[in-house]
Specification:
The protein is an alpha+beta fold. Helix content is about 60%, strand content about 15%. The protein folds into two domains: about 120 residues, no CATH class; about 70 residues, 2-Layer Sandwich (Alpha-Beta Plaits), CATH 3.30.70.1350. A hairpin with a 2-residue loop joins strand 1 and strand 2. The longest helix has 30 residues.
Amino acid sequence: MAALLNSAVLVGISIFLLKEAYEKFVNPQMVKGGVVIWVSLIGLVANALGVLLLKKGSQGDMNIKSSYIHLLGDMLSSIGVVVGGILIYYLEIYWVDPLLTVLISIFIIKESFGILKDAFNILMQGTPEHIDINEIVEDLGKINGVVNIHHVHVWCIDENNINFEAHVNIEDMLVSETKTLSESISHILKEHYGINHITLQFEYDCCADVGIIKPVNV
């Protein structure tokens, strides 16, 4: 929720800045380059420190990543504003101010939409993009003793934990013999697909109208 909200706010701010940039293109305004340079240098130092502190944690946590993108956008803005301030101060090129605003806003929107999409998919308990359920069913169906895999559900509860549950129709065997099947299935799911929480229901010719995903009766 934090990542979703933060990213949504960033997109909203970026759209507002694009609107402001458009108005400055239409009605150019004089900007005090000296003030711009010094203020942006102070912001650059503060944001750069924040980016360095969050960079490592952003690789494994969506909430930290959204904050990292926020500070990274601010840091890039500060760099752009320093350059823009120099151009304005020495060359009086005032249109560079809205141009930088447009470029930075587009970058922030692009990065934020990726986080928005991932966060929304997690909240909706959607299947991760990199996982193909049909491919999983095909791979597991090759295991000796497995007749078919059905009623499959794959979803993630955060960016590091993927859940898998399914019915496994097997050949007639002792309950104790399903341990080997369970280990083989778990190995494939963990090593090939990064799935780390697995729930299996073994059965012998139980489900009628077998399908990979259980149909919903309307």
